[in-house]
Amino acid sequence: xxxxxxxxxxxxxxxxxxxxxxxxxxxxxxxxxxxxxxxxxxxxxxxxxxxxxxxxxxxxxxxxxxxxxxxxxxxxxxxxxxxxxxxxxxxxxxxxxxxxxxxxxxxxxxxxxxxxxxxxxxxxxxxxxxxxxxxx
Length: 136
What we know:
Blueprint: H1 3-12, H2 19-31, E1 35-36, H3 37-47, H4 53-65, E2 69-74, E3 77-82, E4 91-95, E5 101-104, H5 109-114, E6 127-130
Parallel strand pairs: 4-6
Antiparallel strand pairs: 1-3, 2-3, 4-5
Helix pairs in contact: 2-3, 3-4
Protein name: Transcriptional repressor
Organism: Halobacillus salinarum
Pfam family, one: FUR
């Protein structure tokens, strides 16, 4: 996702463009991987020394709610990344070392639904965690 696309999406949803939100998006665009909130805070404080952890989290969750960022949990901690450019239903492999992702264009839900006869599934999230070729 490009910076202007993300900023346009924020505007569409009725949110203001701020220097802090713009810088946060730039960090995600530069790194193109899942990043822990504490790492965002560390990088963010270089430009905004007085920023609080609450401000970081508030903006991370806002950007997730408007579907600019995606969130997952790695090692018991929330990590965020820019929304995936892949369109349509898909899942991800996530490297537990570097946070890079690879889209998976296969969904196991048909097989899983066979084992949940009588259950009403409302949604699902399927992620695979491990080491990418560069980290293994």
